Amino acid sequence: MRYHKLLLLSCRSLFAKNQTSSRNLLIERNGVHRRFCEPVQLQNVKNKLFNIPKHSFQIIRCYTDSDSLKPTISYTISDLSQETYHRLSEIALEYLLEYFENLDDRLNTSAFDAEYSSGVLTLKCGPSGVYVLNKQPPNKQIWLSSPISGPKRYDFDSKHKKWFYHRDNSTLDGLLNEELSTVFGAKIDVSIPTG
């Protein structure tokens, strides 16, 4: 174990001294940043530390510290009763309507309009397009049609109290925050309550 810690620290010090070297490979996969040592670097590190012959080592990974290494939340579809689904989806859509009506007053733009009727929330964003959010009681979902990212179907996770898209684990409020902040050029912070 000590050998691995020493080797890891040595690799990190090599990276610190030589950040722009083509020998350092930074790879991002699934939001995780990893930095790999090339064989020449590993060989030099091992030879310096342990006087090991050149042919007796294997390539190992050296990791850098990164904020993106923090664990992500994994959402799970909850089995909701019809009554619970209707209550949660109504709370979400009515909250969004109120939030966007107040946003319209703050932004003072005539190109924006929010309407809610029969379980369908429509957000008209002028030349940026129209967002439609609607209840889907048979599936116990909220469906979103976005002019930017297209259609998505959101399920509810009771543990984390979030509406989430199971294919990419994104949340409904997270997507709306990101896209509408871009559309309006102002920070949008929708935090959908759950009751």
From TrEMBL:
<dbReference type="GO" id="GO:0008199">
    <property type="term" value="F:ferric iron binding"/>
</dbReference>
<comment type="similarity">
    <text>Belongs to the frataxin family.</text>
</comment>
<keyword id="KW-0813">Transport</keyword>
<dbReference type="GO" id="GO:0005739">
    <property type="term" value="C:mitochondrion"/>
</dbReference>
<dbReference type="GO" id="GO:0008198">
    <property type="term" value="F:ferrous iron binding"/>
</dbReference>
<keyword id="KW-0496">Mitochondrion</keyword>
<dbReference type="GO" id="GO:0051537">
    <property type="term" value="F:2 iron, 2 sulfur cluster binding"/>
</dbReference>
<dbReference type="Pfam" id="PF01491">
    <property type="entry name" value="Frataxin_Cyay"/>
</dbReference>
<dbReference type="InterPro" id="IPR002908">
    <property type="entry name" value="Frataxin/CyaY"/>
</dbReference>
<keyword id="KW-0409">Iron storage</keyword>
<dbReference type="GO" id="GO:0006879">
    <property type="term" value="P:intracellular iron ion homeostasis"/>
</dbReference>
<dbReference type="GO" id="GO:0016226">
    <property type="term" value="P:iron-sulfur cluster assembly"/>
</dbReference>
<dbReference type="GO" id="GO:0006826">
    <property type="term" value="P:iron ion transport"/>
</dbReference>
<dbReference type="GO" id="GO:0034986">
    <property type="term" value="F:iron chaperone activity"/>
</dbReference>
<keyword id="KW-0410">Iron transport</keyword>
<keyword id="KW-0408">Iron</keyword>
<keyword id="KW-0560">Oxidoreductase</keyword>
<keyword id="KW-0406">Ion transport</keyword>
<protein>
    <recommendedName>
        <fullName>ferroxidase</fullName>
        <ecNumber>1.16.3.1</ecNumber>
    </recommendedName>
</protein>
<dbReference type="InterPro" id="IPR017789">
    <property type="entry name" value="Frataxin"/>
</dbReference>
<dbReference type="InterPro" id="IPR020895">
    <property type="entry name" value="Frataxin_CS"/>
</dbReference>
<dbReference type="InterPro" id="IPR036524">
    <property type="entry name" value="Frataxin/CyaY_sf"/>
</dbReference>
<dbReference type="GO" id="GO:0004322">
    <property type="term" value="F:ferroxidase activity"/>
</dbReference>
<keyword id="KW-0809">Transit peptide</keyword>
